[in-house]
Design goal:
37% helix, 617 residues, Rossmann fold, alpha/beta
Amino acid sequence: MKSVGVDTRLTTSEAIVRYLIAQRIQVDGIEVPLFPGVFAIFGHGNVTSLGHSLEMHRDELPVWRGQSEEGMGLAAAAFAKAMRRQQVMVCTSSIGPGATNLVTAAAVGMANRLPMLIISGDTFVTRIPDPVLQQVEHFGSPSTTVNDAFRPVVRFWDRITHPAQVLTALPQVVSMLLDPGECGPAFLGLPQDVAATAHDYPESFFERKVRAIPRPRPDVDEVLAAVNLLKTAKHPVLIAGGGVHYSRAEAELATFALAHGIPVVETIAGKSSLLADHPCYVGPLGVTGADATNAFCAQADVIIAVGTRLQDFTTGSWTLFSPTARFISINAARFDAIKRVSVAVVGDARECLSGLTEGLSGWSAPDSWLQSGARSRVELQTLVDSRAAADEIAPMSYAQVIAAVHAAATPDDYVLTAAGGLPGELNVNWMSKGIATFDCDYGFSCMGYEISGAWGAAFARDKGEVFALVGDGSYLMLNSDIYASVLSGKKFILVVLDNAGYAVIERLQVGKGGRSYNNMLRDSRGDGSEVRVDFRAHAQAMGAWAVQAESVEELAAALVTARASARTSVIVVSARENDWTPGGAFWQVGVPESSELAEVRSAREQMDSGLSAQRSV
């Protein structure tokens, strides 16, 4: 029996919405909603119950209309990155294709350790009306729905089969989303009948609660072991990963490196942890890094990996470092901290660096080592300057386009990209002007992230411009969020580099002995291989201000106009098919052991030779 003033009767959907609204967090000392909004595409599985509740609370939890479920999921991931995981967007879809379209976006969040909450409609728990529209039936497993496809790509998965279950599920969801070590996407399947069912919920469940992201302190013995190892180092290097941003530890990193004379290199996720003019900054490392930086890292005897999962592009498939080099791994996730027989320091990056500083009082690396890092940094800058230089060759190179955007950017601006040739070109040629102003999805390297991600980042940025750089291939995969940005008024500046194909994959294809096939438009099968897309007209048709720029001068002028515009702007440039910035590290890929082509056999020999330097631990 309902107790007046204690319980309140609500549908499951209403309870979820009210609970999300009640969760708050402080960002830069200001209390804000933990869940500031919802990206939604409504269908029969979520519009009548969850959609109704969202409409009833439209001012407290605003809903933004997506154009594709994958796009709004990618926007949620990019928003989380831009907010450094301090706020979380919700995505809701119907069951069926709406849900499965979100799986790719969930994988982006999972690979990059980004928080997002996905709520998808589901089939009826009673099963009486089965099979319903969009239901995929499994003959021997009647409880399985397409929502089970989320299980491998989320940190938390639950199907709400009774209204009371949200009382335990939602606190677990919030706890995981705020956990610096376990953070990732959360999924809730909401069956249509359960979504509409009313239940007596305790009013205390909906009380306003101000949350905080915990900062787990490291174990003193782990810190001591790391300090003792670091004190033996003559050539230490610190790798700054994405965890530096999520800990908001950039200032502490800069102070730590300078105090102890330790050169700093960056992963793609950690880029803009230091400003490019910081005296300890050396450059980007790895497959998409610079030769000078990689050569410097190869001399390191102790590597301090801060907030990085040490993926193959960071480590050159584990050929980049000396076989005798030792690792200290600082990470909030124990799973990452113990990799490669590292001296693990599990905890928040900022707190761990503070702990190391106390133990290292009075110690620093040799001055000559930091000076060596500075010379590598000068070598990197020389490369960047040479690549940026204008020439009389048309079309422009990727590096020249990046240089023009960089020249137009301010320290408050934010640059974003994802797949293809742009991650490598930006990682080397973009010298960070502002802290935490760079985003490249290279955890999942998801084509299509660039445009949707820019839309999501625009929700997070309250100053400066969001610049997104995208290739023609990614543009064609997912472009409808240009219209989403126009519709919502969340502006970004998109630069489309058209080199008529998947040119960077063609580079890999040919570079490993294969023949150019099915990557460039010119060698695609079909009678229409000479037809080209008018990207400017396409973007303009979706409401953007759009222009074609075919020279450095035209691009510079277009960037000025785009900044002054109140609407999302798209600048299309023709780009060279094959003019890549030299450098990088070895990368292990699957080259055939046997082939009729001599070029493939040669590539296999080179691959085997490179693998001879690979560390097993």
